[in-house]
Amino acid sequence: MRGISFDGQVFVDVKFDNADLANSSFSGVILRNVSFRPTFALTNKYYKSIKTIDFDGASMDKLTYAALKGVGVSLENIVLL
Fold first, then answer.
1. Strand partners, 16
2. CA-closest candidate to residue 28, choices 51, 60, 71
3. What is the mean pLDDT of residues 26-47?
């Protein structure tokens, strides 16, 4: 799923477990109760990979926001639901 554009979609109760989403775009999406679990252990490779995902203009709940912020994802221009 690397490099896919999910722009403008709505994701509710979705688990992106074991999905490599490097260089993907989630611009303008709505995320509610969404989790992003790595395909491998929490290593530097995972942190570098998840930081390449674009969440510009996305709307998300506080739990999803906290999980992404906790792994160092840049969440500027995000709307909290």
1. 36
2. 60
3. 80
Residue written as token pair 């799923």: 1
Query: What is this structure's pTM?
Result: 0.79
Query: Residue 40, CB half-sphere, CA atoms under 13 Å: how many?
Result: 10
Residue 47 has pLDDT above 80, yes or no: no
End-to-end CA distance of the chain: 26
Mean pLDDT, all residues of the chain: 86
**In terms of DSSP bridges, do strands 79-80 and 35-37 run parallel, antiparallel, or are they unpaired?**
unpaired
Strands 15-17 and 35-37: parallel
Instruction: Kindly tell me if the per-residue pLDDT of 19 is higher than 90.
Output: no
Residue 55, CA atoms < 13 Å, CB-side half-sphere:
22
User: Sign (positive/negative) of CA torsion 67, 16, 22, 58?
Assistant: negative
